[in-house]
Hints:
Structural class: mainly alpha
Number of helices: 3
Radius of gyration: 11 Å
Strand content: 5-15%
Order of helices and strands: HHHEE
Amino acid sequence: xxxxxxxxxxxxxxxxxxEHSGEGFISLADISARQEISLKYxxxxxAMLNKSGLVNxxxxxxxxGCCSCH
Length: 70
């Protein structure tokens, strides 16, 4: 099975969100720094995951992403 780069990064984002699920919304900048993913690329991945219903995202100062699996 071949997984695209975007798919691998999406899995890393989902894993990061699951590891920090008790912290509420996690800043994309924090995820970007931990996972060493470009913030711009991370924003496009998060938008895709949000549209699919796999994560919840919130824009703004206290926004970010959180896992929608709980």
